[in-house]
Design brief:
Layout: H1 8-18, H2 22-44, H3 47-63, H4 74-92, H5 101-104, H6 117-135, H7 138-149, H8 154-161, H9 165-196
Length: 197
């Protein structure tokens, strides 16, 4: 959802939240928590830590509601706080978060009859993407996630990351190029494995 396209329901809730209405905060929490969690889990590649960071993000939002100056900036403000919480978590752990095995390695399927081939293929692609995301530096990872998974504009990403538009474009270009290299290497290994089988 673009900043400029806040619907009237969102705008009214944000205004009521700014005015101190707790029910408005609850409504915003349920409206945005999945998007924030999705961002955190892709940044940290650890579901348990991502849940904690998501909760911390909304706690900070609640405690700092007076700092929100304009209703139109709510989404950027929310994701800026989520981003900062993720980076704090990474720093605390010396940039090494214990990765969820489920996120970077496909689960063993015990009953293939219950799992359609399309679902298997989809899950394998998700694991592959997560594995590649884990290889990226956090500043590359965040721009990929905000652009490709949160559908943010370059301008919104620049606000969230406190960067310039040109820096965001450059970082996205480099991040996509890195992902391309990882993909080529993975495909090369897969082709080699097929040849030797």
């Amino acid at each position: 959802m673009s900043e400029s396209n806040l619907n009237t329901g969102d705008r009214a809730l944000i205004e009521e939240f700014q005015a101190g209405e707790d029910y408005a905060f609850s409504a915003l929490y349920f409206r945005y928590k999945d998007a924030v969690y999705a961002f955190c889990v892709k940044m940290l590649l650890n579901k348990e830590i991502a849940q904690d960071v998501t909760q911390d993000t909304f706690l900070r939002i609640y405690e700092n509601r007076k700092r929100l100056l304009k209703t139109d900036s709510f989404k950027s403000w929310l994701f800026t706080i989520a981003r900062n919480q993720c980076l704090n978590q990474l720093r605390r752990n010396n940039w090494q978060i214990p990765l969820d095995p489920d996120m970077v390695h496909p689960k063993m399927i015990t009953d293939a009859k219950k799992t359609p081939a399309a679902e298997l293929e989809k899950s394998e692609k998700i694991y592959l993407v997560n594995r590649f995301l884990a290889e990226l530096k956090p500043d590359y990872r965040e721009v990929i996630i905000l652009r490709e998974y949160q559908n943010m504009s370059y301008e919104e990403i620049a606000i969230v990351t406190r960067s310039t538009l040109s820096a965001i474009k450059s970082r996205l270009f480099k991040a996509r190029r890195k992902l391309g290299v990882y993909l080529e290497e993975a495909l090369g290994k897969e082709v080699e494995r097929i040849r030797t089988d």
